[in-house]
Amino acid sequence: MKALSARHTVSACYVGYITQAIVNNFAPLLFLTFRQSYGISLTLIGAMITLNFGVQLLVDLLSAGLADKIGYRSCMIAAHLFAGAGLLLLALLPNVLPVPAVGLFVGSAVYAVGGGLIEVLVSPVLEACPSKNKKAAMSLLHSLYCVCPALSARAGRGERQAARTLFLGRVLVVCGPDGLCGQQ
After folding, report:
1. Which of these, 24, 89, 18, lies nearest to 56 by C-alpha position?
2. At what angle are helices 134-156 and 100-128 packed, to 10 degrees?
């Protein structure tokens, strides 16, 4: 098995910020769909937003110490898994549970854990990677967050299928031939 290089770490950081953008910007594109399809009130949608960012802030507070204890790599992998699982739950649970809002809240909370970890860990990890031009690498990292809402909006046109498609795309990126899964 081939050892991972700094290039893999940099790529994982970029994918992390893409994931962060999806976590924060994808569900808002579906708020009208949630309201029309599941009859969820604007009050509950507002509560879902509050839950998402509240969980992210809580994870932000706890993640620095956690990363020092269990390792940055483990936390980064866990962040991507939480984000992907949350998006999958967001797509599936409202159709399975008797109260669709509960499924949306659970999915939102799970992907918020991933988003919170990503928010705290990605920039320092990228900064620690050897690079000829750290400023350019950091600029690209933060610009990916800005570009990805447009990509999320494009995916949002497919509405219910979009979350499933994004999740499967994440699995391919993370677990594909050069991905993070199965590598030590």
Report:
1. 24
2. 160
Structural domain of 49: 6-175
Contacts of 49 (CB under 8 A, 6+ apart): 28
Cβ 184 vs Cβ 1: under 8 Å = yes
Number of domains in the chain: 1
The angle, 0 to 180 degrees and rounded to 10, between the axes of the packed helices 6-29 and 100-128 is 150
- pLDDT tens sequence across 129-169: 887 888 888 888 777 777 766 665 555 555 445 555 555 45
CATH of the domain at 114: 1.20.1250.20
Q: Give dist(CA 96, CA 134) in Å, integer.
A: 46
Q: Which residue has the tokens 């509405």?
A: 159
Dihedral (C-alpha) 129, 130, 133, 139: value to the nearest 10 degrees? -10
pTM of the model: 0.77
Token pair 């797509």 is found at 91
